Amino acid sequence: MIIGSTGSIGEQALEVIAYHSDKFQVVGLAAGSNWQRLAEQALHFGVKKVAIGDKALYPNIKTAVSGLELWAGEEGLCYLAGLEEAQTVIVSVTGAVGILPTLAAIRAGKKVALANKETLVAGGEVVTKLARQYNAAIIPVDSEHSAIFQCLRNEGRFLRKLWLTASGGPFRDFTPEELGKVTPEMALHHPNWSMGKKITVDSATLMNKGLEVIEAHYLFSVGYDDIQVLVHRQSIVHSMVEFIDGSFLAHLGVPDMRIPIQYALSYPDRWPSPALSLDWASCQTLQFEPPDTKRFPALELAYEAGRIGGTMPAVLNAANEEAVYSFLDGQIRFVQIAELVAEVMGRHGVVLEPDLESVLEADAWARECFRTLLRK
Ligand SMILES: NC(=O)c1ccc[n+]([C@@H]2O[C@H](COP(=O)([O-])OP(=O)(O)OC[C@H]3O[C@@H](n4cnc5c(N)ncnc54)[C@H](OP(=O)(O)O)[C@@H]3O)[C@@H](O)[C@H]2O)c1
Q: Where does the record place the 1-deoxy-D-xylulose 5-phosphate reductoisomerase N-terminal domain (predicted)?
């Protein structure tokens, strides 16, 4: 089952599945609005159960393909995430829209291959609590978290620190003046990875790394003081763990998301992969440097939201989602993304130990607060 099959991760997950077609059968697919591609995927993989997030597009896909069991909206995504015949659910939608299908998959006892980081950022407390209650496996797909997951196998009790690596994005060498002139076209060119628009902009502001810090906190139960970020331009070291005896284990490989996607499916085994092998002769230099949080304040905002806890990470995430799409629409400048997120966070009255309802309310509140600020 893939929730978010038409995106960058969803398409690569289908490639991995096609490569190992003897091991998988796709029983359902869901996407947001790209009904044409969703229909093509369903026909190609012989999938009979499909959901489209945008209810208004239900008639389009219904007339395009016959013989499908069709669902729409949030209920449709949740229904498919809990589908009886699915064993593994890949959650690869973008944004907090991933929360409810992830919870539905956990409740239904599925193995969850989680690419969608916003779910753990916004709803980390609720999701991890439910996963413990249902003894559900959440296997990270995000390359940094997959790297840590692989380095930590059986040795979590000896952990001292997590080291998350970041490419630094396309503007890592820009001056503050140059950052003031960044356009959406410039921000959508990532130096090392080909990804969806939202995460590409997040990588350029370093908010992506901030979201990953919070994601790591919830996935590995590590305090924020023990999660460090390093800028590593080559994106060869995908992350590292430091143990109490001073040893480090790092995960290295080519920057190809099919590797962590496949690992989430093959775990605890490993299978041959269509990804290229690392050519050591062409990567003789591996550089590491601390991030510059003055030029990229979004990273520090995420640490702050994580440390405050409660509903604050949900507010950070929702304000950031709104800010990224406003930047892409030309309504705000690149540097205003972090400024406006900080402004929304400053206005929020935090609810500690939130339940699902408080998380969803905080998410909705932050979006409304952002839009009010934008109108001003
Ligand atoms: N791409 C990467 O390399 C990468 C790496 C690590 C982590 N991640 C994380 O993985 C997630 C997906 O990233 P991506 O790059 O694959 O994004 P993407 O290319 O923008 O794809 C997003 C997917 O989510 C679907 N979607 C969006 N809104 C929806 C809604 N309301 N209901 C149902 N489906 C909806 C989209 O469907 P339509 O296109 O049909 O609208 C699409 O299938 C993000 O959380 C990202 O942070 C991505």
A: 1-124
Distance 6 CA to ligand 1 centre (A): 8
Block residue for tokens 């779910």: 119
Alpha carbons 112 and 1: distance in angstroms, whole number = 10
Q: Is 321 in the pocket of ligand 1 (CB under 6 A)?
A: no
Cβ(92) – ligand 1 distance below 6 Å:
yes
Q: Is the pTM of this model over 0.90?
A: yes
Tell me how far apart the alpha carbons of residues 220 and 238 are, in angstroms, rounded to a whole number. 16
List the pLDDT tens digit at each of the 376 positions of the chain.
999 999 999 999 999 999 999 999 999 999 999 999 999 999 999 999 999 999 999 999 999 888 999 999 999 999 999 999 999 999 999 999 999 999 999 999 999 999 999 999 999 999 999 999 999 999 999 999 999 999 999 899 999 999 999 999 999 999 999 999 999 999 999 888 789 999 999 999 999 999 999 999 999 999 999 999 999 999 999 999 999 999 999 999 999 999 999 999 999 999 999 999 999 988 889 999 999 999 999 999 999 999 999 999 999 999 999 999 999 999 999 999 999 999 999 999 999 999 999 999 999 999 999 999 999 8
* Residue 7 in contact with ligand 1 by CB distance below 6 A: yes
- Substitution candidate for ligand 1 out of 2, 5, 8, 38 with most atoms within 8 A of CB: 8
Ligand 1 center to 197 CA (angstroms): 9
Closest to 214 in 3D by CA, of 96, 361, 357, 343: 96
With a 6 Å cutoff on the Cβ, whether 193 touches ligand 1 is yes
Q: Which helix (H) or strand (E) holds 357?
A: helix 356-375
Pick the CATH number of 2-140 from 3.40.50.720, 3.40.47.10, 3.90.226.10, 3.30.1340.30: 3.40.50.720
Q: Is the dihedral of CA 137, 143, 148, 150 positive or negative?
A: positive
